[in-house]
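Could you please consider the sequence and fold following this short note?
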Amino acid sequence: MINNNERISILNNLTRKGVNIPCFDGVIIEPEVEIAANTVILPGTIITGNTNIGSNCIIGPQCYICTSNIGSNTKLNSTNCFNSTIGNNVTAGPFVHIRPNTVIKDNVHIGNFVEIKNSTVNNQSKLPHLLYVGDSDVGEN
C-alpha cells in the first residue's frame, strides 16, 4: 500500500490532468491506475491494480475497483468491481458486486444489491435489483 505523501501526490497529479476529486478524504488510487479527464472520484473510493477509467464518469462514493476497465459516461455508486470490464453509459448501484471475469456492455443499468459473476451482460439490458447473475450470458435489451 502507498503512504500518505504518495497518495496525495497521485491525487494531485490526477487533478492536474482534469480528474475531479472534490474531497481527497478516503480516496486511494494506486500509481498504475489511469483515469481520463472530466471523471469525478467521490470520497471513500479505492482504485487499484491495472485499472483504466474513461472520461465523464462518476465513481463513488464508496467504490472499490481492482484491475478493471471502465468505459466513458459510466456511473458507479457503492460498487465493488474485480477483474472485469464495464462499458460506456453504464449505471450501477448502490451496493453492486461485480466479481471476476464479468463483461458489462454499453447502456446497461444495474440496480441495488446485484451481484454478477463470470457473466456477460449485453447492450441495453437492465438488472433491476436484488439479483444474482452467475456463469451466464444476458442477451440485449
